[in-house]
Amino acid sequence: MPSPYLPHAIYSVAIISLSIHLVNQRKLASEERARIAARTSILESIAEQLRSDKPLSENELEKLKRLARPLEHDPAQEVGETVGWKDIFFGRKKKEGEPEMSKWEKRDVEIMQQSMQK
Fold this sequence. Notes:
Largest sheet: none
Number of strands: 0
Structural class: mainly alpha
Number of helices: 4
């Protein structure tokens, strides 16, 4: 016999999921606006310096151009690995060639072993 609260639980999960998605979209949009504003201000400063009488050094101009370029590798646009339900419940299998532990994990284990020996 299904619980009378089951529909409410499903609605709650759906609303929470939608709100998390909307917050994430809002954050991405604000980051994009900030990136565009930064590029615009850099390009405006380049134009202002080129219009002025004082000469602009080539190094400074190249640095400003590099700052004004859009990112080639945008982590926000990167599509991550998909995680299946099997991975969620049973854990992810290590890929071949992937080390057992990272160097940081190895360092932590060594520190713990040293502290236990004392």
